[in-house]
Design goal:
Length: 539
């Protein structure tokens, strides 16, 4: 198996021409104040999880270089964003909703022209398959368009005046200030934009910090950001997160933290902000989503959903199924089917057609996964599938572990990789107690046909997790559904409509219902003296 994995890595001439990176990207600039500003300091190498074989052995492909900014440079960029917001009096926050929508639409047109470049970079930087990379790009564009439509609807509702108890009022939404957007490496484009786009279109100014892996995917978009928005509205900060991010938070100039990552990092960043009650946090954090397979489940369906749910993009998704509770009476059949299903998955490089298992972007991840597997085996679990847990360089072949017990690390730790933990149970209370005791509360999947048992599980889990999937894997879509979590899994709901609300605040302009006030308000509206106080209706 190690040799089989080693030969998956290509020679340079085996890479299809359309997916090659012939010349590494040298990005010695960053976006701030409406310009691509040159960086003369140190650069960080961006290397791919894909290893290229040569006579000297296999080495990680150099994708390019990006700025390694200092604390001073990062704070200067933040100051630009704060100046562009100007306490809510800047060009962008005072612009009409229609004008902001037009800017985002211009950006979307420019973004679509960069699709091929971004898809290729997603493959090289994070090891995402071609199909998954294309899906991420297209879903991001759809999310932008859906956000615009949701904002139009929200603005239509706000375009009228209300008269209550002798008070004339108009209720609209206003921006919050400077938003620090930090997305994850597993969906560096889509997840970043699920905070950036709603924050931006609501009138906030942005400081974008790309994730540790997925840095260069934003490089093709920098000119589009520059050309689509007023100077200082979108700014980028590059560099080591531990160096540049804490000072940004400690400055007190960040009004909203849009962060997707671990709860430990989120807690640390929130703790250094000097005005915690002024800071709003929109957080997508850890998850340990369980699947519960009941004795009467359609095993063909359950296995197909569990394989896809646990191994799509190598299991590197917060919505992935991380632990499976299977009734003991069907455990052997379930494991055999899972093992066959894993064996049928195609392993290879991201650009290969039909590939599912690809190299892992985190250099330390294979060793961590090996540690989880070794710990489980030492405590009585076995690897069910042939070759499971074999690794070579950045590649880790999926491991199906059974029987997993509470004594094992994999029982509680979020593996965020291709290790599948299967726990046998006899009584339905066992998986319920696991979910209740868990520190995480994002989603759960339940598989079965008995409506009484399914209803019992729904009622037991509905106050523990934020989404229950019946006979299907955990997932985020559709984006119109709320995407949130309990406990350590999230802070704030993320969906198209929810995101617009969470990155803004309701504001009321009110006056007593007198003839003089009626005339004043009528004049302001009729002569379009105010962007905020308006009855303009966006179609």
């Amino acid at each position: 198996m190690p040799r089989d994995i080693e030969v998956l890595f290509p020679d340079e001439d085996q890479i299809p021409e359309q997916y090659r990176i012939c010349h590494p990207i040298r990005q010695n600039y960053y976006l701030t104040q409406g310009e691509l500003r040159r960086w003369d300091g140190a650069l960080q190498e961006v290397r791919s999880p894909v290893r290229i074989r040569s006579s000297e052995g296999a080495r990680q492909k150099l994708v390019g270089e990006a700025p390694l900014l200092t604390e001073t440079a990062a704070l200067e960029i933040l100051a630009v964003a704060a100046q562009a917001y100007s306490n809510g009096r800047g060009v962008w926050p005072t612009m009409s909703v229609g004008e902001r929508i037009q800017s985002v639409q211009r950006f979307t047109v420019a973004m679509l022209q960069k699709r091929a470049e971004i898809v290729t970079l997603l493959q090289w930087e994070v090891g995402k398959s071609l199909q998954e990379a294309e899906r991420e790009f297209d879903r991001t564009v759809t999310y932008i368009r859906d956000t615009i439509e949701a904002l139009k609807e929200l603005d239509r509702v706000s375009s009228r005046f209300v008269i209550q108890q002798g008070i004339i009022g108009q209720i609209r939404r206003a921006p919050l200030g400077v938003v620090l957007c930090m997305g994850p490496y597993n969906f560096p484009l889509y997840e970043t934009f699920t905070t950036l786009i709603p924050a931006l279109v609501m009138g906030n100014t942005i400081v974008l910090k790309p994730p540790r892996f997925g840095i260069l995917i934003f490089q093709p978009l920098l000119e589009a950001f520059r050309d689509s928005f007023p100077a200082g509205v979108v700014n980028t900060v590059y560099g080591d997160g531990e160096t540049v991010v804490p000072p940004l938070m400690a400055s007190g100039q960040v009004d909203v933290l849009g962060f997707i990552g671990t709860h430990r990092v989120a807690d640390a960043l929130r703790a250094v902000h000097p005005r915690p009650h002024r800071l709003r946090c929109v957080l997508g954090l850890d998850a340990k989503n369980p699947a519960i397979i009941l004795p009467d489940a359609d095993l063909g369906l359950a296995v197909a959903e569990c394989i896809q749910g646990s191994l799509t993009f190598n299991g590197q998704r917060c919505t992935a199924l991380k632990i499976m509770f299977v009734h003991r009476s069907i455990a052997d059949d379930f494991l055999q089917r899972m093992s066959r299903g894993i064996g049928a998955l195609k392993c290879g490089m991201p650009w290969e057609e039909g590939v599912t298992i690809t190299p892992l972007p985190e250099p330390e991840k294979p060793a961590y996964l090996e540690g989880l597997v070794s710990d489980a085996r030492a405590l009585g679990a076995r690897i069910v599938n042939p070759g499971g847990g074999t690794s070579n360089g950045s590649f880790f072949y999926p491991a199906l572990l059974y029987p997993v017990t509470p004594a094992m690390r994999i029982y509680n730790e979020e593996q965020f990789g291709p290790v599948i933990a299967v726990v046998p149970f006899d009584d339905i209370r066992e998986p319920i107690e696991y979910v209740v005791a868990s520190n995480y509360g994002q989603q759960a999947s339940i598989f079965g046909r008995n409506s009484d048992l399914l209803a019992q599980l729904v009622d037991a889990l509905v106050n523990q997790v934020c989404r229950i999937n019946i006979n299907s894997q955990c997932q985020r879509s559709p984006d119109s559904f709320p995407f949130n979590g309990r406990k350590n899994s999230a802070d704030g709901a993320q969906s198209v409509a929810d995101a617009l609300r969470i990155f803004s605040i309701r504001i009321v302009v009110a006056a007593r219902e007198t003839d003089a006030n009626r005339e004043i308000i009528t004049t302001i509206v009729r002569e379009r003296k105010s962007h905020f106080l308006s009855t303009d209706y966006i179609l």
